[in-house]
Structure formats: C-alpha cells, structure tokens
Amino acid sequence: MSALSVTEKLEILxxxxxxxxxxxxxxxxxxxxxxGRKGGLGSTEGMGICHAYAPDGRxxxxxxxxxxxxxxxxxxxxxxxxxxxVRRARFTVKEVVDLTISFYRxxxxxxxxxxxxxxxxxxYTMEQMVGVAxxxxxxxxxxxYIHLKTIPDADPELTHQAGLxxxxxxxxxxxxxxxxxxxxxxxxxxxxxxxxxxxxxxAMEDMGExxxxxxxxxxxxxxxxxxxxxxxxxxxxxxxxxxxxxxxxDRHALRRVYYSAFSPIPSxxxxxxxxxxxxxxxxxxxxxxxxxxxxGYSADDLDAATDPESGxxxxxIDPKLAWALRHRGIFPVDxxxxxxxxxxxxxxxxxxxxxRILMSRRHRRLRLDDVARLTSSIVKLRPFLVAxxxxxxxxxxxxxxxxxxxxxxxxxxxxx
Amino acid sequence: xxxxRALLTGPDDFDGWREAARRFVMGGVPASxxxxxxxxxxxxxxxxxxxxPPRKGDAFSVPRSFIDLAESAILHRDRERFALLYxxxxxVRDNPAMMEDRADPLLRRVEMLAKAVRRDMHKMRAFVxxxxxxxxxxxxxxxxxxxxxxxxxxNAGFFVRRFASxxxxxxxxxxxxxxxxxVLTEGPGATRSDAPEGDPMEDAWKRYYAAIFNPARLxxxxxxxxxxxxxxxxLPEAALIPELVAGAxxxxxxxxxxxxxxxxxxxxxxxxxxxxxxxxxxxWSALRDQAxxxxxxxxxxxxxxxxxGEGPLDAPLVLIGEQPGDQEDLAGRPFVxxxxxxLDRALDEAGIDRARLYVTNAVKHFKHExxxxxxxxxxxxxxxxxxxxxxxxxxxxxxxxxxxVALGVxxxxxxxxxxxxxxxxxxxxxxxxxxxxxxxxxHPSFLLRVPDEARKAQERARFVEELREIGxxxxxxx
Lengths: 416, 478
Description:
heterodimer; A: 416 residues; alpha/beta; TIM Barrel; 6-stranded parallel β-sheet; two-stranded antiparallel ribbon; 10 strands; 9% strand; globular; B: 478 residues; 4 domains; 5-stranded mixed β-sheet
C-alpha cells in the first residue's frame, strides 16, 4: 500500500464508518474546561449538539471514523468485510487524536466516535482503541465526548478500561434474529455479543454502587451503552425487531437501540438483497421505539399496530395512529379529565403537549382553541378528543378516517 | 394620561428591565403608559413624566419560572418584547399560578419568543466555525457569526466553558466577544471582512463531511429543517451540498448496477475545492433551482415558468414587486414589461443605480385570466402570497439586504405578513425582524392605470421622490 495522507485516510475511514447510525453526544455527566485543572479542552453539558447535517438528514455531532477498515471477519452486510475490495487504510493512534483535537478546537464536533475493523486479534484492536481514548484524556486533558465501539470478544479488562475513558460504549447486535446473524455474520456469535452487553451493564451498576459510597470512585461510561440493528438485510419483520429491542432494553439497560435501514454498499456480497428497504420503515421503527420508551406502549400493544399478514408497521400512517384505529372504542378521550396514560395514546399528542395540558387544566376548562395553542397541529387530534366546546361526531367510527388523516399516497415517494 | 420612559442600556439588558419593571408595577403603571427604549436606538420624541415613587409595602415576588422565561424572551429581536413581558409580569404578580396555565395566549406568545431565542442560542453553539490565526506568535481562533437575536452575551459562557484554554474571538454584526484565556472582553460590532478567510483544517473537514454522507439515503428536508439555508453562508462545508445531492442518485444507481464480481471503483475522488463560487451564490442558485419546479400553489398550472429574482447577491437594496406579468412570464425575467420600464426610468431619475439592486416578486408565477387571445393580469390571493413566501423569505435570508422595498399591497403583505394600506404605511421606514429596514410604496403599474394625466404626473413625482429618499438611506447605511 502506498503511503496515504491523513486526509486520504480520513476519507476512506469516514466513508467506512457512515453505516453506523449512532451519533448521539448527550446524556453524559456535565464537565467543562473552565473549572478544575487548567489547560483542558472541551465540555459536555447534558444536551448534545449537532454541528452540521449531511444531505441524508443525519446529524453530524461526533468525528465518526474507523481506526482501520481492514478486518479479519467476513460479515456479508458489511462494506469492510475481508472479501470486499474497498481501499484499506489505517490510522495511527496519534493521527486520530490530532484530528479530533483539531476539529474540536474549531467547533466542528462534540467529540469522537471510534470504531474499528478487527485486525490481528480482538484484544490487539481493542488495545489500540483504548489507546486513542487514553491519549485524548491523559495527554490532552480532553473533556469532550468519547464513544467507543467495543469488541465482544476482547478481554473484559480492556472493556473495563474503555469504560473509564469513554462516555458511551456500544456493541452492535447487528441483526434482529440469531438466524440472521448466523447467516450473514457467521463469525459473530449472538451469545457472546449479549454476554458482553450484560458484562457492561453490571460494570456500570457496580461503579454506580461504588460512587454512592465513595464520591471519588471513577465513573464507568456515564452515558451508558447503546446498540444497532440492521433492518431489511435479513427476513425479520417489524414485530420481531420490536420484540428484540424491548428485550434488549429490559435485559441490558440500554440507553438507545438504533435501527439502520440496510443501504446498498459498493461491491456487495451475493447473499444480500440488492435493493434497500424503504427508509420510511426505519422511521416507523424509531417511532415505535419512542412509543415504548416514552409513551408507555408494550411490545404487545405495538404488535396490534402491525399488519397481521406482513408483521410490519404500516408505512402510510404512523404506528400511534395505526394503534388508535384498531382501538377506536376507547376514543374520544376527554382532554379535561383523561389521565396522562390515556392522553399519551391520542395520535398527534406528544409528551410535552400532554404535560402542558395537564398543567393548564388545573387553571381552566380546555376548549379546542386552548388545545390548539398547546399542540402543533389540531387537525389530526380533533377526531380523538372531547373538549368543553368540542365533541367529535361519528368521526372515530367513520371508515375513511385513515384516508382523511393519512398523507396523500403520492407523498410517500418523497421519503422512500 | 402620563407617559413613562424606561431606558435600557442594551437590547439584552435584563437587569435594567427587571429594575424598571419592578418600580412600574409597584407604582401601578399600566403597560400602555410605558415606552421601553434601548440606549442608542432611535428615540421617540414624546416627553415623559417622572416615575412615581414606589409605595412602601408593595414589594412582591414572582415565581422562578417567570424569571427564567423572561431572561430568554428579552433577547428576542421583537420590539414588543419589553412591553409583552411587562404585561405578563403584571398578571403574574396578581396570580403567580398563571405561569402553569400554558394555554393562556399571552404566556404562549412570550414562550414562543423564548423558544426562538433558545433555538438561536443552540444553533450558535452548533454553527460557529473557528479559524486559526497567528497572533503575536501564538494562535488565536476567530469566528464570524450572524445571530437572529441578541444572544451573544448570554451565550458567551458556553464558549468559555468549552474553550477555556484557547484564545478566541467571536465577531458578530452587533457585538464582538474576546477570550484571552483569563478574561472575557467585549467590543463593538464587526463585519465579515474582519474575520479570517480560511483555515488549513477546513479542507479535511469538508472531505469528512462529504465522506460521512450516505448517498443511498437522501433526505434533504430533514437536513433543511435543522440547518436552514440562512446558516449556509458561514458554514464552509455547506458549499458542498448541491453537488453531493446531485451526485447522490447517480452514485446509488451505479452501486446497485455493480455486480458482485465486478472490480470495485476507487472510492470517489474528492470534489475539487479550488475556484468555487461563494456559499451565498451556491445557496441562492440551489434555492432558485428548487423554485423552478414549485407546485406549492395551483398557479404553476397556467404559467410558463417560475420567475425568480435577479440582481447582484450582495445588493444592499431589494425591490419586491407583485408578480410577473405577461411579458415577464414569457421572458423568464422580472420587471421587463411596461411596469418594469416605467420603474427603470423612475429609478434613473431618483439616482438609483439599477445594476446595484436586486429585484424579485412576492408571487413568482403569472396569475391571469384568458380573454380571447390576451392574458389579463389577476391579483394573487392571500393563499398564493402565503404559499410563495416560502421562497421570498429564503431569498431574503440569503441576500440579507439592508433595505427592502415593497412595491404595492401584495408585496407589502408578503414582506410584513399582514394586510396594510399603502397610503398609511408609505413614506417611513419600518424595522423588520431580520434587522433590515423596510419601505412600502406603490407598484409602478398603478401609474399606468391612473386615467387623469395631471394626477398621474403628481403620483409619479411622489413615487420618484420616495425612491430618492430610499436611495439616500441606502447610501447612509451601507
């Protein structure tokens, strides 16, 4: 390999990292460079910041790169698999550190998200990644955000060190079903992946325990762990994906599950579908994820929103509306009396709007106009609500409700 | 009725507002009797009464949530913010629990102001781009930023906490802040040319931006909702967007066509960086290209083409007309028909250089009715004006002119967002939210329709006189 410049490597290794959806830089502990030891760089203030948006609509918050895109594994869905003939490149630890610092000083990024193909061995690769985080924290007193992708087979001691330097750790479960993983990533093992996630959870809990006793006990990955599933590369339907996500949240205390619609990659393996799934499917899965985490829907509730035949969430309407249309009997909901759980089930009412309604109705009987001021759009809500001057007539029973609330069919193409 | 004046030291002077508002409330002064003024901004000529002394025992307190809200809302550029906050304060004093009544229209309005300010602060934290310069042998990081609201002081703490060990400056049109590693200092406003032109890391950053973009998932709307075009002009990476978008579909199609056995193409060479038009030109032409395919209202059915604005993109003066006419519709350019020719002569007489101004229309498709072989002009409806503001607002965001002139009621409605009468609004500048100065006058086609010759000459003279006054203002402020 001829010698590549740092910017050439950056191009190759950012290109290779873009299939990972995660870019969050939020939810870690607060820290800054104005207090404490002098000479530090950076801060984290709870809320993450998106410093740019690419034309794919994704936020650019972190410098998201691979340490190397060489890999000894041969996972079919992955552009960096052993048998792929992409250009290979490898950063040195120092190159990654310098790039991160230079970008950070110019306010391009919140920090670093480092992942890597596996070279030589899992331990060797993990050591290199930990080396980057250690140099950033110890040599440069970097106080920005660090997210490290951990390697399931690496020595637990290395994972432990990674957790001491990084804000977030993650391991990708890659595919929603074990069969899918066997077929598309034959060298990965679902049990080892989940074993490593369970290990990280208990490390986080142990450290939390220690900090309750000793204030100066070190923190372990204060922004928690996350994972990613690829949607549309194997045959799993939305029901299977939602159930898997629910169980991952429950068992490993994950902060986030990311869903990434499989994108066609250059020189794909012949085992893969050639066409991508609609991007809207990914969007619907994120909506169902939000419904589980913030709106109190169970996986069973979400089952009821899927199409009985295909097992997938409808693409033309959002899953909350789909659920409501299957449960018309419980609507309309009285905006002046209904409990929080019921208001959260009204299509078009978000968590913030519900909280504002609950506060306001202590002071006034809400009319439809009042509700309109508390929400972004009243049109979608009206058929499902009773206000003191509003009673929907037959709407919840009418057969064309879906077509009157759903988007025009032609609009779909915009998102597909 | 007595009138009182409260003088604030700056547009973001919360403490001054708080102190004055406390005394007014204790003196029982209603909101309508207070004139809130900011030092250095144009003062009104009314005379004012001395403030009544506060009555003993009238001290009061308000919930913390009010203070938090007011601290944000006061930074908004809306001139009514001081009065709105005062009106809210009077009500909160009588009923502190009303802060929970989120359906209240006044509280809602103030919350919307605060929300816009918080978004602006967040976007500043996101989109400030530092460039490194050598300064006395050490490095200093300098950024140029144009905020929508008066947020610079309130936002300074964030940059201090984040970049405490660097020396940096953030230059903005109203106020500059400098950090030397120890102390934060302020200076007067600057211009873009005071900021450095480039930075050696920008090439790497642009290449990163291009490489991290996944062309298989183009979602421009999602990008635009979070990174509207008005920010593009100060983001080095934004210059790449049009070509990334254009290349995306083709690249994906090529990937699907590549068979598994075919040799991989070398990963796309980076787009050449040299000799690129400015970001403003790129965002303007991207906007224009999109407007060409506009179907936001039904007018596109019968019109030949979208007539977008034209003129130099750094023009200090923008004229907005009503809509293209028959000739414009065919020619594809604004103001080339009879009214345009009349305007050209009037501008010439008023001493305004036609080549230094940008002309556009409130509605960008020709609305007409067919009578025999002729296409007769029809006035656009509110819904059509509203649909087209989407383009006009973005056009003005990109151009950022110092002075905007609305010719006729349609243009005035599009510019001010409400219906106005020409006779009552003409002849005086209007402060626009964008910080530009707005003027309203007649549309030149009105002169073509006046039947009486004497009156026509009179109206024409008045029009030229108004243009001349505008021309003087342009010279004065640019």
